[in-house]
Structures are given as structure tokens and as C-alpha cells.
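User: What would this chain look like folded?
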Amino acid sequence: MLRVSQVASRLNLSASKVYQLIDSGQLPHHRLGVSIRVSEEQLTAYLTETERRRSEPDPPRPKLPRPRLKHIKL
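Assistant: Here's the prediction, encoded as C-alpha cells.
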């Protein structure tokens, strides 16, 4: 079981970002008393999921109308 600081080091993130991932539910974890631990399997599952999401194409964005600038006369 890895501590938050170890997970942050492996992911090259700050500890606060790892806490954000845990709070948002993106990174599975275990709470042991007041300690938070992440197993190797949970870390691997998180990395697999983020890689899968990264490989999916982004949905097309709707085109927004351009605002008319009334103060400029052409």
C-alpha cells in the first residue's frame, strides 16, 4: 500500500493534486484510520483508465456564433 506522497512521486504530481483526485473519486483508495493508502492495483487501474480516456477522440465542439462588434465600422 502506497502513501499519498509515494503516489504523487510516481505520478509526478503534487500531493495536493493526488488528494484532489481522491476527493473527486477518480483515484480509488483505502482509508486506514486517518491514513489514506492506494494499492498497486488501484494505481494501475487509475493509469489504465486515464490512458483509455486519452485514446478516445474528443467529442466535436459546437460552433458558437461570433459576437458582432458594434463599435467597429468596416
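The chain has a mean pLDDT of 89. If you want, I can go into more detail on any region.
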